[in-house]
């Protein structure tokens, strides 16, 4: 198949590279000339394990190229994917669809008569309908179809998620579009990955319903962790005990400082707005959002409490800044709430993250960016572990303790066994554990 991918952001780049790995011919389009030039030189602008090698291999094989010329890329494509950004609109939490609609119009103008436009960006229910209307208006003489094909990639394991997904969801309103989508994903059907074909609105809603459900799970276990602390129970064992029930499942039950990233915060808000406007507000998602907001504040309070109620003039070391490990993404990271609150309470904050320092520096004014975890903890009155990078799971605890002014360790990801930390001489606190 010949595919065009509009937008070389996270989803576009990963999807484009993976489709070319399937054997399709893929042209990725971006307006930003600098990004396209860098990509053609084999430079990958985002941090994603395995992506660089994948791009290199398929570009060398002639199946993957990058251009700013949308017209040329789209002209003979069987399907054109829209993977442009849909940021939260300031003020009302709605997804901003202006980039999607602008792309739809340009594609319709340049596309062949039987092209399928596929929405890969996360878009509210009804967007496919609107894109269809734009395509009809722009090119009434063409038989352009519009499909929805939501993405379920996790940053840090996006390639694996694309190549071995639990399912592929496709939303279509005619047989031609369905056949094109089935051909595109044939390599996965050979691996027996289920392909769920639904109508467009249903496919669009599945994406939001899935992300919001996962966010519910996280806020749920986070509130359970708070309850565990009050009643003297252990949240890790509670999570295990409920997760062993197949109906619940063990995943997404890790308590922590609250979910962040580019998807859960944005998608829960967008689903709320859609549901309110439709007159069927999903109240459980509102509660999930509220719990998550409050949680980030509570994490700073927890650090202050661990320091005896006062951090003024004290050095606090933060380990991990990205919203999760294996990414340099700072979007909605709990660190962005926690660290400024500590600074406001008078603390001097030093931080280290293996990948996100560059992204984090402009977002965290006044935070000292240390050269290593050990440099960050030097002279600190407390360490707060915010992101569970592997290298923070295997710290030389003797060295950490010896260099600190006061051995207070606040572990917001439950990385260490409490007994080990206490016997190592730390005043250790974690989430929902005794
Ligand atoms: C998520 C979804 O997993 C993916 O399917 C969707 O397409 C995009 O959003 P991503 O944002 O990359 O992916 O990260 P994910 O690994 O899902 O983590 C999201 C947030 O939840 C992180 O802040 C993480 O720390 C937090 N989290 C996750 C928890 O606090 N506890 C958990 O048990 C799992």
Automatic annotation (TrEMBL):
Keywords: NAD, Oxidoreductase
Domain of life: Bacteria
Biological pathway: Nucleotide-sugar biosynthesis; UDP-alpha-D-glucuronate biosynthesis; UDP-alpha-D-glucuronate from UDP-alpha-D-glucose: step 1/1
UniProt GO molecular function: NAD binding; UDP-glucose 6-dehydrogenase activity
Positions contributing to substrate binding: 152-155, 207, 252-256, 260, 324
UniProt cross-references to Pfam families, sorted A to Z: UDPG_MGDP_dh, UDPG_MGDP_dh_C, UDPG_MGDP_dh_N
Active site: 263
Binding site for NAD(+): 30, 86, 122, 155, 266, 331
GO biological process, one term: UDP-glucuronate biosynthetic process
EC number: 1.1.1.22
Catalytic reaction list: UDP-alpha-D-glucose + 2 NAD(+) + H2O = UDP-alpha-D-glucuronate + 2 NADH + 3 H(+)
Domain UDP-glucose/GDP-mannose dehydrogenase C-terminal: 317-418
Family of this protein: Belongs to the UDP-glucose/GDP-mannose dehydrogenase family.
Full protein name: UDP-glucose 6-dehydrogenase
Species the sequence originates in: Pacificimonas flava
């Amino acid at each position: 198949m010949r595919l065009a991918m509009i937008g070389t952001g996270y989803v576009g780049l990963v999807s484009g590279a993976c489709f070319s790995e399937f054997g399709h011919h893929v042209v990725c389009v971006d307006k930003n000339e600098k990004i396209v030039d860098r990509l053609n030189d084999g430079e990958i602008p985002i941090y994603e394990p395995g992506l660089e090698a994948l791009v290199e291999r398929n570009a060398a094989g002639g199946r993957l190229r990058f251009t700013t010329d949308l017209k040329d890329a789209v002209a003979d494509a069987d399907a054109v994917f829209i993977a442009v950004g849909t940021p939260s609109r300031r003020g009302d939490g709605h997804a901003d669809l202006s980039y999607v609609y602008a792309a739809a119009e340009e594609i319709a103008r340049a596309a062949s008569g039987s092209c399928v436009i596929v929405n890969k960006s996360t878009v509210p229910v009804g967007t496919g309908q609107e894109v269809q209307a734009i395509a009809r208006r722009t090119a009434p003489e063409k038989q352009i179809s519009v499909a929805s094909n939501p993405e379920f990639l996790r940053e840090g394991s996006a390639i694996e998620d694309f190549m071995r997904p639990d399912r592929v969801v496709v939303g279509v309103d005619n047989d031609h579009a369905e056949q094109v989508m089935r051909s595109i994903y044939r390599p996965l059907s050979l691996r027996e990955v289920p392909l769920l074909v639904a109508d467009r609105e249903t496919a669009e809603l599945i994406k939001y319903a899935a992300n919001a459900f996962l966010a519910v799970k996280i806020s749920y276990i986070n509130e359970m962790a708070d309850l565990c602390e009050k009643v003297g129970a252990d949240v890790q064992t509670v999570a295990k005990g409920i997760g062993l029930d197949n109906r619940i499942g063990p995943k997404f039950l890790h308590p922590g400082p609250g979910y962040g990233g580019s998807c859960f915060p944005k998608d829960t808000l967008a689903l709320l707005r859609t549901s309110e406007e439709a007159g069927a507000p999903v109240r459980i998602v509102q509660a999930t959002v509220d719990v998550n907001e409050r949680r980030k504040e509570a994490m700073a309070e927890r650090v202050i409490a661990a320091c005896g109620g006062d951090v003024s003039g004290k050095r606090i070391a933060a380990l991990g800044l990205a919203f999760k490990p294996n990414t340099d993404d700072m979007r909605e990271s709990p660190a962005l709430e926690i660290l400024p609150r500590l600074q406001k309470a008078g603390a001097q904050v030093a931080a280290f993250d293996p990948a996100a320092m560059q992204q984090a520096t402009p977002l965290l004014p006044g935070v000292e960016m240390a050269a290593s975890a050990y440099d960050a903890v030097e002279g600190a009155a407390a360490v707060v572990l915010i992101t569970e990078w592997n290298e923070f799971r295997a710290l030389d605890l003797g060295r950490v303790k010896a260099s600190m002014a006061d051995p207070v360790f606040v572990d917001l990801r439950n990385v260490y066994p409490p007994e080990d930390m206490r016997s190592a001489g730390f005043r250790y606190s974690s989430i929902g554990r005794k």
